Design the sequence.
């Protein structure tokens, strides 16, 4: 048996048949096309698609109960006894065997809930002639949803001569695209939402050209990826929309960081970038204090037990890192207090030499950097890293660590601090602020930044089990990050379906059975899913008007968004300008 | 080293590269002054900086401690920012 040619769903059904007899096929019957699973005198069979060359002759497979329908083509249909799958899979003319699937009464609900089908029906837009750029974890190049539409993959993670925008990685075309694997599954799912062509769980722009950058997630390399997509699209004379379903909190949260700057430089007529807002709506990653001159305020942070520290050439990984910003006209001093109460001295802005100092406390080392104002925005930035104790590498003590901010010269007095990794350390206590959680690149001024709306909370998985997600249906998803930007610019721009969204499954990624809805598609949630939804919409708009610039796109989208119970055009930190209603676009 | 041109993260990271000042271990953004000339941009290209050879004000590269130091002294370099790790926003 060549299992490489048999879809996971069919292989699972065969295993259950062999282990439990006909009874083992019962849970598969609701989703797969099966025949004679009841005890009768005929062997159990499956209705299948057989992938082969267009001109392949499969007549030699007849017999042993295998019936292949006429009609030719690269996907033949037929009926195959389970016991003949072995023979079928070993035949050189057969490339892959999929089971026929039962169509569900409901198409994937997300597009319908925001009016995509009537829009496409009215306009006929499909994304043809538009490039959708996906800078992400890669793509499954053989997934049928993308058949022949992946133009190139720049895989930044493998050795190679690179491209103009970055002399690393390799640019792959044609069959060589199969060298690149999406082992995470995120990029494949994102690409499917924006531009997949699955008949049941298709994307928003199913005829768009797809250009993929598999990135190592360094923001400098993401910037290179954005430039690459626009350069290639420009060479083809095509408009393009780039999707960035990624983010971080090491920046100023005001769009002045370098990645956001590159985005703002690169966009223009026919060049649009869509970004996810982030998923920290439930995470306490932002703290704020208002400090008066001569006074000190504290931010309490819960730092958990750190993972084992793996030595690396670049030094020990921080147990927790904090990124603080305040007005350039103020002068603050920063100190850190460990759970025991022992602390570092206050460190003022350092104007000569390195602005970083390391202090060793019993419970951990602390590195504090307090440079002069950042010329990008004129504001002060400070960084605090809580590190294992050098040179022994003893791990930091978990518990409540405090950042103390002293106002030496105060004009404004507001200090915003972010935990760079909210899965590690979170703020607690009075300084906690449920706002300003959209970092780079979602904070880029010209980007279309998208939060999440919940369109599905129940489903039946591939094995027939009912599943539920713990979100409230038909409202903004609780994990969607709140704005605005630190300079009060409204972000996110809008929200779109982001939970639970069905889209393309990468065969090279980990599979969560409860999320599988068929052998080609899986469910995911996140603002990662809502951003490509809008990217696909933008592709449809660019097909209609190829010279739309970011302001025009945002204007169009905003005019068709609303927050429930609010006047159209009202901004909300969680909803942005509201849920998109596509049919009027 | 002109420390005023380095962001806080790069200043902190330089401490950890002090042992090997020639290893190209620092992924950075190089932000240029408006007065950067074509020969200046050519110098960056020779250093392996991509993206700063046209009209863009921002290039990217992996640099060593020594190269960061040298660039910080150039009047046409406005800022050097350490590249940070992004996270995918799927759950």
Sequence:
């Amino acid at each position: 048996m060549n299992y490489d040619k048999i879809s996971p769903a069919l292989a699972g059904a065969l295993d259950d048949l062999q282990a439990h007899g006909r009874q083992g096929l019962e849970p598969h019957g609701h989703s797969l096309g099966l025949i004679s699973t009841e005890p009768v005198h005929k062997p159990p069979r499956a209705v299948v698609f057989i992938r082969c060359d267009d001109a392949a002759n499969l007549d030699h497979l007849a017999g042993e109960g295998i019936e292949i329908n006429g009609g030719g083509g690269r996907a033949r249909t037929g009926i195959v006894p389970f016991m003949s799958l072995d023979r079928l899979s070993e035949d050189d003319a057969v490339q892959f065997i999929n089971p026929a699937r039962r169509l569900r009464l409901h198409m994937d609900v997300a597009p319908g809930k925001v009016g995509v089908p009537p829009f496409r029906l009215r306009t006929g837009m499909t994304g043809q002639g538009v490039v959708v750029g996906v800078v992400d974890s890669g793509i499954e190049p053989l997934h049928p949803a993308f058949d022949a539409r992946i133009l190139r993959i720049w895989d930044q993670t493998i050795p190679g001569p690179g491209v103009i925008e970055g002399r690393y990685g390799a640019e792959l075309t044609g069959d060589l695209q199969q060298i690149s694997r999406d082992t995470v599954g995120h990029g494949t799912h994102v690409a499917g939402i924006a531009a997949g062509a699955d008949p049941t769980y298709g994307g928003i722009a199913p005829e768009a050209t797809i250009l993929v950058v598999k990135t190592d997630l360094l923001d400098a390399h993401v910037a290179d990826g954005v430039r690459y997509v626009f350069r290639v699209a420009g060479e083809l004379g095509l408009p393009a929309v780039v999707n960035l379903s990624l983010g971080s909190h090491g920046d100023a949260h005001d769009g002045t960081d370098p990645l956001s700057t590159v985005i703002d430089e690169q966009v223009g007529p026919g060049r649009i970038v869509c970004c996810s807002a982030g998923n920290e709506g439930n995470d306490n990653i932002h703290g704020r204090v208002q400090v008066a001159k001569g006074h000190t305020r504290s931010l309490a942070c819960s730092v958990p037990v750190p993972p084992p520290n793996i030595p690396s050439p670049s030094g020990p990984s921080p147990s927790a890192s904090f990124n603080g910003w305040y007005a350039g006209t103020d002068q603050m001093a920063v100190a850190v207090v460990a759970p025991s109460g022992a602390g570092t001295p206050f460190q003022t802005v350092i104007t000569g030499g390195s602005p970083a100092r390391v202090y060793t406390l019993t419970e951990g080392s602390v590195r504090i950097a307090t440079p002069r104002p950042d010329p990008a925005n004129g504001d002060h930035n400070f960084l605090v890293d809580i590190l294992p104790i050098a040179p022994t590498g003893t791990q930091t003590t978990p518990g409540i660590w405090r950042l103390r901010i002293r106002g030496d010269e105060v004009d404004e007095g507001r200090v915003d601090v972010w935990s760079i990794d909210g899965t590690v350390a979170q703020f607690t206590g009075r300084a906690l602020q449920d706002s300003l959680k959209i970092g780079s690149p979602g904070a880029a001024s010209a980007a279309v930044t998208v939060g999440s709306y919940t369109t599905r909370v129940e489903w039946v998985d591939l094995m027939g089990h009912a599943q539920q997600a713990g979100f409230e249906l038909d409202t903004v998803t609780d994990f969607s990050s709140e704005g605005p930007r630190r300079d009060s610019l409204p972000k996110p721009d809008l929200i779109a379906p982001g939970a639970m969204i069905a889209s393309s499954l990468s065969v090279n990624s980990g599979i969560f059975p409860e999320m599988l809805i068929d052998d080609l598609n899986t469910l995911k949630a996140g603002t990662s899913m809502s951003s490509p939804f809008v990217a696909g919409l933008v592709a449809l708009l660019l097909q209609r008007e190829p010279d739309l610039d970011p302001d025009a796109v945002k204007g169009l989208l905003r005019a068709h968004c609303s927050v429930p119970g609010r006047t159209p055009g009202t901004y909300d930190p969680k909803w942005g300008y509201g849920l998109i209603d596509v049919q009027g676009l | 080293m002109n420390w005023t041109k380095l962001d806080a993260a790069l200043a902190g990271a330089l401490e950890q590269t002090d042992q090997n000042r020639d290893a190209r271990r620092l992924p950075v953004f190089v932000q240029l002054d408006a007065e950067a000339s074509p020969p200046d941009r050519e110098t960056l290209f020779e250093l392996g900086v991509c993206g700063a050879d046209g009209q863009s004000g921002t290039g990217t590269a992996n640099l060593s401690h020594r190269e960061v130091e040298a660039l910080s002294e150039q009047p046409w370099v406005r800022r050097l920012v350490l590249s940070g790790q992004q996270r995918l926003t799927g759950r």
Observations:
- Chain B has a mean pLDDT of 90.
- Chain B has one domain: 3-82.
